[in-house]
Design goal:
Belongs to the ClpA/ClpB family. Torsin subfamily. The protein is of the alpha/beta class and about 325 residues long. Helix content is about 45%, strand content about 10%. About 0% of the residues have low confidence. The structure holds adenosine-5'-triphosphate, 2-acetamido-2-deoxy-beta-D-glucopyranose (2 copies) and magnesium ion. Magnesium ion binds next to α6.
Length: about 325
Amino acid sequence: MNPEKRHVLLLWMLVCSGMTEAIEPFSTSIAVGMAAALTGFLASYQNIFYYFNECCRPEWISFNKTGLEVDLESKLFGQHIGSRIILKALTGFMSNDNPKKPLVLSLHGHTGTGKNFVSKLIADNIYKEGMDSSFVHVFTSELHFPHSSKLDTYKSQLQQWIKGNVTNCERSMFIFDEMDKMQPGLIDSIKPYLDYYDKLDGISYRKAIFIFLSNAGGESITQIALDFWRAARDREEIELKDLETLLSLSVFNNKNSGLWHTSLIDKNLVDFFVPFLPLEYRHVVQCAMAAMKAKGLRPDKNVADQVARDVNYFPKSERVFSVKGCKTIENKLHYYT
Ligand SMILES: Nc1ncnc2c1ncn2[C@@H]1O[C@H](COP(=O)(O)OP(=O)(O)OP(=O)(O)O)[C@@H](O)[C@H]1O
Ligand SMILES: *[C@@H]1O[C@H](CO)[C@@H](O)[C@H](O)[C@H]1NC(C)=O
Ligand SMILES: *[C@@H]1O[C@H](CO)[C@@H](O)[C@H](O)[C@H]1NC(C)=O
Ligand SMILES: [Mg+2]
């Protein structure tokens, strides 16, 4: 091994496993000598941490409250309730050094309203690597649990994954996409991890974050948004309490979805139900403008209007809400620019 490689390896050990653990076996004088050598080495590489694999340490994982606030404000359109709850939930949880249980968020709403998008914004503001972080795990039923006959295998596999990943890093994030398509029972198998346990088999899950995404309850959220629209009331006047009862009722009574047979709700394991409102014409325009910007094009209001006009809206008579939300807007731009 050449000297430089050895340095790098040594540093990798120190950075990833924590100074104390790595130094313990050595005598103090060696440690001091090493520290001195390291200081010199570190000084010559200011961005030293970027040279190494991602580690479960604050250099790679730290919550940026301002960052999340700015992102929610400037990138997420039409979700005044959702963004408020999410900022509050994350800020409370991440500033607590000793949470009593993991954070469990359940995001609900019509298609294309930003549920996956928000999960990405959350990941971006906790993990330096964002969604690419090795501590962020996304599960989708079609990809990870496609065959209903293999439920038992999936259950134990999922438990192993969560256990293994939280053992690696207690600040792990698990996103369960399209929860409505998950088989009944699968989510039951992770219930213990979401609960108020100090430790399970010596592992604490209390710093982990679980995010469930589903369309369940979307209909009733849409109904309320439509009621407000018909009454010519400002969308921003919709409050969580207007949605809460209906949302939990419709989610509770939806016998078809895997999540809701479980006792996640009656056991209060979900900390926050986050409703996503259906998007209107003006939000589609905003999405189109943002998509142009993201593509490095100059945002052009005329083009955005054109895109938004060509999108389908419902209900048929009033054409208030975009059928696919802001989904496919990015691809549609292709035809206009
Ligand atoms: N409220 C929003 N504000 C800004 N952009 C949005 C919003 N909703 C959707 N988008 C854009 O549309 C894309 C698709 O949205 P996303 O995948 O988050 O929808 P979803 O709510 O997960 O839908 P589904 O229920 O079909 O999975 C996002 O990547 C984002 O670019
Ligand atoms: C947090 O986010 C803000 C706004 O995006 C950014 O200016 C700031 O540099 C970020 N802070 C850290 C420590 O990354
Ligand atoms: C962590 O989760 C992933 C799935 O996202 C899985 O492939 C991997 O084996 C898990 N790691 C451990 C150590 O269990
Ligand atoms: Mg989605």
